[in-house]
Specification:
- The protein is an alpha+beta fold and 438 residues long.
- The chain has two domains: 177 residues, Creatinase/prolidase N-terminal domain (Creatine Amidinohydrolase, Chain A, domain 1, 3-Layer(aba) Sandwich); 248 residues, Creatine Amidinohydrolase.
- It is built from 14 helices and 17 strands.
- The strands form five sheets. A six-stranded mixed sheet has the order 4-3-2-1-5-6, with helices on both faces. A three-stranded antiparallel sheet has the order 7-10-11. Strands 8-9-12 form a three-stranded antiparallel sheet.
- Helix 2 crosses helix 3 and helix 11 packs antiparallel against helix 12.
Length: 438
């Protein structure tokens, strides 16, 4: 049986002011006499008559808080009829269909969630949309302009672009994604409150794992504990596929097999986070399976923690990710010399395009976070107040079959940054003490 996402949501209703303010922010950036149309994601087929679980287009959610399939948001601030300056389009509830697929949103429910007073049913939107478009000079349409985009599948928003350009060839078409990239990277206080809820849920799950993990436990049992803890706290589930990597598995950055036994003397790297209200937490901790770091493990862990704290000290408004990464590379080089991973000659003779420290730290240090785990935001312009980032340095040593990563989430303010995960255990001493109590 297909499950409708919006009514299977477990989280409590979000503050509609989030979406009201987001729409105001977007409208402020629109050209005069413009209309913007956003469409929901596809329902993707799986096999046979099955569908993958529906996941809303995050731009549409950012504007409306609506997670139901076949939805649209239409913004036309210059519409002569004030009633239609903000419109939410929904599937009309159908009694027979609801017997199979579950209840759809009613107009009053959707208005309360989104703060949009005018609801138009999808089966009657074509005629009024045509009228509104004829009154407008510019049409904003949405596409996926995430820098990390890897899929070439022509999804619904691209097909909608083709349809609109064919129907209205003489209009001026504008990129909604260019505005979205700027706006979504700056989180409001209300948005960060939802992220904090996802983080608090993740904190409780991690503390539960510190009591659960011991030699002989399997990675998939740990993943099951995460699911249990998340769902019992009203999270939708994990924000992404949890990485539960014991021993040498930790050197695979996106390890998802999660099927090995955790052995005495090994470390286990766990990269996971809750999704709450469609906003994501993103935590990584590396802990000893037996509850006690060996002398060498402690040395490497503390070097990684030093890098983490160094990053925290320089990730502030005004620095670019490129400059930030270069500075972290310099500090990583110093630490890797200190813990005997690099020699002075290796550093002296390094290739400047592939620096010596990259042998042991071969990924980026920070990424934008929000409705998407790798959220929209610039990677070249200076960092601004309001942005939300991960900080996640790692050290991966093939010769020692060891991988360590430490990750927290930070909200950038004009005076520096705020560690939203400051209450989650992070030091060797904190982790060992909590694991000893089980």
């Amino acid at each position: 049986m297909r499950v409708i996402n919006h009514l299977s949501m477990k989280y409590l209703p979000l503050n509609p002011e989030i979406f009201i303010n987001n729409r105001k922010r977007f409208i402020k950036e629109m050209l005069p006499n413009s209309i913007a149309v956003f469409v929901s994601n596809d329902e993707w087929p799986s096999n046979g008559d099955a569908l993958h679980a529906f996941k809303q287009n995050t731009d549409l959610f950012w504007l409306s808080g609506i997670t139901q399939e076949d939805s649209m948001v239409i913004l036309f601030p210059n519409n002569p009829d004030p009633k239609y300056r903000e419109v939410l389009v929904l599937v009309r509830p159908n009694e027979l269909k609801e017997k199979w697929d579950g209840k759809r949103l009613r107009a009053k429910e959707a208005a309360a969630m989104s703060g949009i007073a005018t609801i138009v049913w999808l089966d009657s939107i074509d005629a009024p949309l045509q009228t509104w478009v004829h009154l407008a000079d510019h049409i904003y349409l949405d596409t996926n302009e995430n820098d990390r985009k890897a899929s070439h599948v022509r999804s619904r928003e691209y097909r909608f672009v083709d349809e609109m350009k064919a129907t209205y060839p003489l209009h001026s078409f504008q990129r909604a994604a260019k505005i979205m990239k700027q706006l979504r990277s700056i989180k409001t206080k209300e948005e960060v409150e939802v992220v904090q809820k996802a983080i608090d849920i993740t904190n409780i799950a991690f503390r539960r794992l510190l009591q659960f993990i011991k030699p002989g436990v399997t990675e998939y049992e740990i993943e099951a504990e995460i699911w249990h803890s998340f769902l019992s706290q009203r999270a939708t589930g994990p924000a992404y596929g949890s990485i539960i990597a014991s021993g040498d598995n930790a050197r695979t950055l996106h390890y998802v097999s999660n099927n090995a036994e955790c052995k005495d003397g090994e470390l286990i790297l766990m990269d996971f986070g809750a999704e709450y209200g469609n906003y994501c937490a993103d935590l990584t901790r590396t802990i000893p399976v037996n509850g006690k770091f060996s002398k060498r493990q402690k040395v490497v862990y503390n070097a990684c923690l030093h890098l983490h704290n160094y990053c925290k000290g320089i990730l502030k408004p005004g620095i670019s990710i490129l400059d930030y990464t270069d500075k972290v590379g310099e500090e990583a080089t110093k630490q890797f010399l200190k813990i005997d991973l690099l020699s002075k000659s290796e550093v002296k003779n390094e290739d400047k395009e592939n620096r010596a420290y990259r042998k042991y730290l071969y990924h980026g240090i920070s990424h934008h976070l929000g409705l998407d785990v790798h959220d929209l935001g610039t990677r070249t312009e200076p960092i601004k107040a309001g942005m939300l980032f991960t900080i996640e340095p790692g050290i991966y040593i093939e010769e020692e079959q060891m991988g360590i990563r430490i990750e927290n989430n930070f909200w950038i303010t004009k005076n520096g940054n705020i560690d939203l995960m400051k209450n989650i255990p992070i030091t060797v001493e904190e982790i060992e003490a909590l694991m000893k109590r089980k």
